[in-house]
Write a structure and sequence with these properties.
Elements lengths: L1 H8 L5 E3 L5 E3 L6 H28 L5 H24 L6 H4 L6 H23 L4 H22 L5 H33 L2 H28 L2 H25 L10 H22 L3
Antiparallel strand pairs: 1-2
Helix pairs in contact: 2-3, 3-5, 3-10, 5-6, 5-10, 6-8, 7-8, 8-9, 9-10
Main location: membrane
Organism: Amphimedon queenslandica
Keywords: Membrane, Transmembrane, Transmembrane helix
């Protein structure tokens, strides 16, 4: 299954079982299931990348909002479908979880709801650049991701680790704020009212919490699954930071058309989803 593909990529002593019941080294055998799962995994990754590139190349500057909205949401919709199929039929990454070897099925549902909330947020923010409901939708997604990471990270952590990582994330946020505070104040005064400021403040506190819990999970557990979660959490934080900076440095090539925002966003969602599937497979 796909979980075996990932395990073997990170294992120096990978082995397959032969038909006689013995074990055969990876160099001397051929596993059809592994090969098919590798093909399916690579096919989905290529499809996901293709849809993301299609939006970045065609959809970003498209005149028709319907086409732009469809292309923007397609990568995440494909991720939701692939994620749900993996779970519902008990194949690939989710085979062991569906067999009942782990009780973390609620992680799957929280991640699914978070992905759906993200799609809703994408749609609302595509219709209106500063949509309170769109920001709240993404805030809900961050809360759900934080619950998933925190539920795994907090039990095995010490108070010192919790506090130090909290201070680290708070320091990063404070440093960013101090670096751009003057331009940020001008941007807020020109475009935002007090209600929007409260919602934006709520959202950035949620994205910071998600990054904090992702860091805590990796420091506490230190597995491939936690590493993928940390990469996804960090990229999500960077994506939202790019949204903020694109409003300040809109003429800069890196922030123009928000390509940096969507690139990091699509990759972040993929890594977080893979992280949860690995968790459900007892990796």
């Amino acid at each position: 299954m796909i979980i075996h593909v990932i395990k073997n990529l990170f294992s120096e002593n990978s082995q397959f079982e032969n038909s006689s019941g013995g074990e055969e080294s990876i160099g001397g055998g051929f596993d059809l299931d592994l090969t098919l799962d590798m093909i399916l995994l690579v096919a989905f990754v290529l499809l996901y990348l293709l849809l993301a590139i299609l939006y970045l190349w065609v959809g970003v500057n498209h005149d028709k909002i319907q086409i732009k909205l469809t292309l923007k949401c397609l990568p995440l919709i494909s991720l939701i479908l692939w994620y749900t199929i993996q779970w519902s039929i008990g194949v690939g990454l989710c085979e062991e979880a569906v067999r009942g070897t782990r009780g973390e099925s609620w992680y799957f549902y929280l991640t699914l709801f978070a992905l759906i909330a993200s799609v809703i947020g994408d749609a609302l923010l595509n219709i209106r650049v500063v949509s309170p409901l769109g920001i709240i939708s993404f805030g809900i997604a961050q809360i759900l991701f934080s619950i998933i990471f925190g539920a795994q990270g907090f039990p095995g952590s010490t108070w010192l680790e919790v506090i130090l990582l909290l201070l680290l994330v708070a320091g990063i946020c404070l440093g960013i704020f101090l670096a751009i505070r003057q331009k940020l104040n001008a941007l807020f005064k020109e475009h935002f009212n007090i209600g929007i400021l409260v919602i934006v403040g709520f959202y950035f506190s949620m994205i910071a919490t998600m990054l904090w819990t992702a860091l805590l999970l990796h420091v506490t557990v230190g597995t491939l699954q936690s590493f993928f979660g940390l990469v996804g959490g960090a990229l999500f934080f960077i994506s939202d930071l790019c949204i903020l900076l694109s409003g300040i440095y809109s003429s800069h090539w890196f922030f123009k058309n928000r390509i940096s925002v969507m690139t990091t966003y699509y990759i972040a969602q993929f890594f977080i989803s893979i992280s949860v599937l690995l968790l459900c497979s007892d990796f």
